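Subject: Sanity check before I submit

Could someone independently write out the structure tokens for this chain? I want to compare against mine line by line before I put it in a report. The sequence has 371 residues.
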Amino acid sequence: MTPSESHYSISFQVSLTCFLLLEIVLGLSSNLTVLIIYCVKQNLVSSVSNIITMNLHVVDALVCVCCIPLTAVIVLLPLEAETATISCFHEACISFASVGTAASVLAVTADRYDITARPTNRVMTMGRAVALLGIIWTGSFTSFLIPFMEVGFFISSDSDLVNQTTVDHTNEFYTELGLYNHLLAQIPIFFSTALAMLFTYYKILQALNIPIGMRFQHNLRRKNRKSRNSISLSTATHAESPDLSQCSTAQRRSGNPPLGISTSVSVIIALQRAVKRHRERKKRQKRVFRMSLLIISTFLLCWTPITVLNTIILSTGLGDLTFRLRLSCLVMAYGTTIFHPLLYAFTRQKLQKVFRNRIRKMVVPMVEGDT
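---
Independent answer below. Compare away.
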């Protein structure tokens, strides 16, 4: 297969390179900030959930350092260059990023379900968490080695390797050698993680007594209920005002409040406290529902296009159009390196408190020095 052009279009290269550089800067800075905060505060590292979350941020940081720059190199290199070795490393990094990210997200999802379902008697102990992380890194490193095994990188001699991996341009590396076997490891792990996330967060919402089916109908009912409550409250206020005036007159004459009034006041206070607790519980349920929806939709939005395209490549092969689409889908998949710190780390109150304290300790001496 011979491409019609020796380079990608300038607009395609510039747009993809800008997005990739933005993902490197934002993803690396945010993930490193989270890791530094976890390492500075010792009591955060001692938690099983924080260790599993830190593993996800380590994987994202490695993706920003290794995978995204290689993708930028593939985009900027001319198509006629002999880039088979670089393409092999690029495919290995993509395989590592896909398997490592999906497995790490799956581990965080399982840990959150364990916290919600068994808060007092947790299954995810420190030993099991370390074993789980060992399995994740073993699988990710194995997926990284699969593209090299396909070209016989470890068993062929140097002359054979040069003959096998030297092709005219990047696309022929895929079309002539047919290096698609590593995609078979990326597709099942994505669908397994997606199904596990849907099931797990459904169980989490069920454990917190959050009705999913009625959530979207609740907004319309709440508007109607507000209008009815305002009318009923105004009517009740007008009806109770003569009674309250009579009670206040009787209280002035007798000097001591009647027993019924004191009982009514205590009942009103108890009702106010109950309403306050109910509102706080509703806010907490709404926050959990929104976060669950954001976590699931972000993972599916970023990794579904590249997984669907990998499935198409396995059945039809790789052409010029699908190769460019694959690079664009990779840019979307790398977006999780930016979203993960926002969804899994900065939403935690303890980490927010530590982050604010560190910023305050850095800013206050600078302000005092200027004054």
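---
OP: Matches mine. For the report I'm noting this point. The CA atoms of residues 15 and 328 lie 10 Å apart.
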